[in-house]
Structures are given as C-alpha cells and as structure tokens.
TrEMBL record:
Keywords: Heme, Iron, Metal-binding, Oxygen transport, Transport
Gene3D superfamilies in the record: Globins
Protein name as it appears in the record: Globin domain-containing protein
Globin domain boundaries: 23-102
Sequence similarity: Belongs to the globin family.
Length: 119
C-alpha cells in the first residue's frame, strides 16, 4: 500500500481524496487506451505511456524514487489478486508483463521530462 506523504497530504481525509482522484485518473487512462483501440498498436501504446510519464514530472518538486514505479506495479498486481481471485496464473503473468511495459515507458517519459526541465 502507498504510504502517506506529508509533502502532499496534510490529513487522512486529504490523503483519501488525493488517492481517490489518482484511482480515477488511472481508471481513465486504461479506459482511454481501450476506447482509442491503442492496446494493439505498440507504437501508440508506448507513446501514450511515455506522455503520461512526462506529465508525472510536473506532479512533485522532488523527484520520484525509481522504486515507486515498481511499487505501483506491485500494488496494481495486489489489487488484481485480492479483487479478482479467479484470475489464473497465466492471466496474472500477462497483467504483470503489461504493467511493466506501461511502467517502463512512463518512466522513460518521466526521466526525459526531468532531464529537459533541469537544463
């Protein structure tokens, strides 16, 4: 589970609000990938993830730790396992591969944006 960060949330209620908004944005991102039929186009999928990663560079004055990206993937997998216990091991592996693909391309965009902003 993501830990509270006093830099961004000053109360439990505010943290819940922020996390709820983040969850909505994550859901919207995946919905948009499906709606725009991007999933079958690797080039477009990479670009969508890269662009989202670039946006993340503006979310914080401090650089995200690289470990946060993997923690997000693991948290998503935990939610999948907890909420959809009928998911097969093969499906879980496919989701993990997909999540890592998304993370890798988001991280590329994030790091590129940081290096551009630091010039």
């Amino acid at each position: 589970m993501l830990t509270q960060n006093a830099q961004h949330a000053e109360s439990v209620a505010e943290e819940d609000f922020v996390l709820s908004n983040i969850a909505d944005r994550i859901s919207q991102f995946f919905h948009q990938l499906i709606e725009d039929d991007v999933l079958m186009n690797t080039v477009e999928l990479k670009k969508s993830c890269y662009d989202l990663g670039r946006q993340h560079a503006a979310y914080s004055k401090k650089q995200f730790k690289i470990s946060f990206w993997e923690e997000f993937t693991l948290t998503m997998m935990d939610v999948l396992e907890q909420n959809y216990p009928q998911t097969t091991k093969e499906e879980q592996k496919a989701w993990l591969h997909f999540q890592r693909f998304i993370n890798e391309n988001m991280l590329d965009g994030y790091l590129d944006a940081l290096s551009y902003n630091n010039k």
